[in-house]
Amino acid sequence: MADVTLTGIRKRFKGGADVIPDMHLAIDDGSFTVLVGPSGCGKSTLLRIIAGLETASEGSVSIDGRDVTQEEPAERNVAMVFQSYALYPHMSVARNIDFGMRLAKVPADERKAKVDEAARLLNLEEYLDRKPAALSGGQRQRVAIGRAIVRNPGVFLFDEPLSNLDASLRNRMRVELAELHQRLGATMVYVTHDQVEAMTLADRIVVMNGGCIEQAGTPMELYTRPATRFVAGFIGSPR
Ligand code: ADP
Ligand code: MG
C-alpha cells in the first residue's frame, strides 16, 4: 500500500511569498496522477516535498498512512526521477543503477539480481558497461528510471522526465511508462507540460495554478467538464 496524503501543506521560501498556500491532496494507492500547470506554479516544489527533498513550512505528508513529514528522503517509500537524469558520468550504467543499493549496503548478489531485472525491464541489457555519455537521451532516462526501480518504492515521483527527448522518443517512452505502471502497480505522481502525456497516462489529472489546485479529475472529466477557462486551456478542451 502506498497512498500519499498531503494535509494543509504550505511552502514559503526564505524571504518570498507563499509558493504553496494550503494544499490538500489525496493520491490513491496504485494510481497514476499527473500534475499539470504553468511554469512556476509549484509542481516541482510539491514533488520535492513528497520526496522529502524540501521541507514544508506547515502541514503534513503521509505515505502508506504513516506520517513521514519529519523523515529523510531515504526513509520514505519513494523514488524520484528528474528531467535532467542526474546520472554519474564517470560510472557505468550498471554502477549508476547499483549506486543507491551500495550505499544502503544491500548484499552484492541481491544488487546484481536487481540491476539485471531493471535492465531487462528497461531494455538496457546491452548497455550495462557503457558510460552515460555513450547513451542516447532515451537510454539515459531509462537508466534514471532503473535507479528508481531497484529501490522498490511504493511511490514514483517523475518531474518532466521526457521533456528533454525528441517527439518520437517521447512517444515510445510514454508507452513504456504506461507498461511499467501496469507491471509494477506502484503509485506514480508525474509532472508534465505535455497534454498528450497527461491525457494518456493519467488516471487522474491535477491542474495547478499559483500553488493551488484549480481542478482535479479524470482526463475525461476535465476534458468534458472543465471548471474554468484556465483548465480548459490547459487540457485543450473546446470551451
Ligand atoms: P514548477 O515546477 O511548477 O515550474 P517550482 O515548484 O519549480 O514550479 O517553483 C515554484 C515557485 O517557487 C517559483 O516561483 C520558483 O521561483 C520558486 N522556488 C522554487 N525553488 C525555490 C528555492 N529553492 N528558493 C526560492 N524560490 C524557489
Ligand atoms: Mg518544475
Automatic annotation (TrEMBL):
Task: Recite the UniProt keywords alphabetically.
Answer: ATP-binding, Nucleotide-binding, Sugar transport, Transport
**Domain ABC transporter: where?**
4-235
Keyword Flavoprotein carried by entry: no
Domain of life, source organism: Bacteria
GO terms, molecular function:
ATP binding
Protein name per UniProt: ABC transporter ATP-binding protein
Q: Does the keyword Transport apply?
A: yes
